[in-house]
Automatic annotation (TrEMBL):
Listed Gene3D superfamilies: 3.40.50.2300, Winged helix-like DNA-binding domain superfamily/Winged helix DNA-binding domain
Keyword hit for Phosphoprotein: yes
Single GO term (MF): DNA binding
Organism expressing this protein natively: Leptonema illini
Record-linked PROSITE patterns: HTH_LUXR_2, RESPONSE_REGULATORY
PANTHER family given in the database record: HTH-TYPE TRANSCRIPTIONAL REGULATOR YHJB-RELATED (PTHR45566), NARL SUBFAMILY (PTHR45566:SF2)
Protein name per the record: Response regulator transcription factor
Record-level GO BP terms: phosphorelay signal transduction system; regulation of DNA-templated transcription
Domain HTH luxR-type: 135-200
Pfam family, one: GerE
Residues bearing the modification 4-aspartylphosphate: D54
Keyword Lyase among UniProt keywords: no
Occurrences of domain Response regulatory (ranges): 2-118
The entry's keywords: DNA-binding, Phosphoprotein
Amino acid sequence: MHIILADDHTLFREGLASLLQRKLEISKVYEADDVAGLLAHLERPVHFSLILVDYTMPGMEGMATVRRIVELSARPVVVISAIGDRSLIRELFHSGVAGFIPKTARSELMIGALQLVLSGGIYVPDILLDVGEAEPSDMAPLSERQIGILRQIAEGKSNREIASSLNISEHTVRVHITALMKIYGAANRTRLVMLVRSRGHLLI
């Protein structure tokens, strides 16, 4: 597996690259310290599984640059940043990113978030959600994989049945369900389905 990691803070970038190679079995991390370097990597004849981007690195011109990276990469783009503005994070999701991870996040959280994205999910940070049930305006769009899992939960299927039908592991199913419960602020599977249906997010 190959990924791109673009961040202009050398110590952070190199430390994160080392962590990802140890924890995610990544063959090679292509590093860049600005947007130009990131775009140059995207032109390589390499299949990238993930693009990690710092929102404030040189060459970043707001959402226009983010949307360009999303369009060019054709792979999940995750933004990492010290900025914690909720409206900005919501706008990033509407621009097509698959996740936002604060730079202050613990290594365990960061690895878990990236595993979720790599398995087809969307990672939403705690800062985007109020305590309790999330309002629709604060929510990121769900991935096709997450919608598929929601439908099967609503049908009463077990984790084993969902895993078998989607050809993924039970662990991956649990990771997705945990993320979905977090997104909706649901305490259990039953409440999750109720919230999803009440907001018209699940048509089955």
